Amino acid sequence: MAIVKAFIVINLVLVTFAYLTLAERKIMGRMQLRYGPNRAGPYGLLQPIADLVKLIRKESFFPAAAIDVLYIFAPFLAAFTALCTFSVIPYGPGWEVGGYQINGYVADLPIALLLIFAIGSLGIYGFILGGWASDSKYALLGSMRTCAQLVSYEVALALSVLGVVMMARSLSLVDIVDAQAGSTWYILPQFVGFVVFLMAGTAETARAPFDLPEAEQELVAGYHTEYGGMRFGLFSMSEYINLITLSGLCVTLFIGGWHGPWLPGPIWFLIKLFVLLFLFIWVRTTVPRLRYDQLMRFGWKVLLPVATLNAVITAILVVAL
């Protein structure tokens, strides 16, 4: 049963990723007073399939001096770690079908939150290997910049959820969602942690205004300069799936997970997920990109102290009350 659920969840995440690319281009087009994709199929609904065909048909080249095994392995590592993290996020209360109990998650681990951060840290190696194994100084510099940004903001991201962990007294995402059932969602008492989580998560997924790893309008491309075809597509897919996972994790930790009135649990989870994804697209369309020194200063001198102070105050209140 777990294998069947994993297969279904992975395919749903892939479909969401495909049409998130279309939704982002449509929404950005409307915000910029243009149409967006509208040629492939009715209303442009076949655009993700057209993009897939285009990437598959592109020449899959690689530099003559590249380190073959690591060069090919890097995008697969980035995509694999991105897909794995969604397996511990709960999306419903569970159901009994044909005498079988089907839980609303693929796996419930007592350290699920730590697992997500650990796998996310491994995903950084995909970006580092991609730049280093390309044997290109531009790709190498891009991968170093990516590594510095992701490692820096991961500290603030981890500290921003400490308050939720202390209030729920568990690292299990299922327990954290259950702790918000019939009570106040953690977005209210942990609003500071929620804001820090969104900002640090935006940098972790390399979204504007923190998209310095690529900065397509200004740089060659960053760590994937020497990639083309589906290898480039896997890097792009991993970034979008990381964004979906981050939004799902934010829903789970701060916005009550799948809890909500009247509608079924998975519907509420999807509604909250899509609202957060829309917020990320909105921010990308309206907020200008930071300089790299501003990016690093904001992470270490603003987000990190605020997240630390929030965790300390939460610890004091939890012990006192």
Task: Provide the helix percentage.
Answer: 55-70%
How many helical elements? 11
Strand order of the largest sheet: 1-2
Task: Give the DSSP E fraction (strand runs of 2 or more residues).
Answer: under 5%
Give the overall pLDDT as a whole number: 88
Q: What separation lies between the terminal Cα atoms?
A: 42 Å
Instruction: List low-confidence stretches.
Output: none
- Main sheet summary: 2 strands, antiparallel
**Roughly how many Å is the radius of gyration?**
20 Å
Number of strands: 2
Which structural traits does this protein have?
about 325 residues; mainly alpha; about 0% strand; 11 helices; two-stranded antiparallel sheet
A few lines on this structure:
The protein is mainly α and 321 residues long.
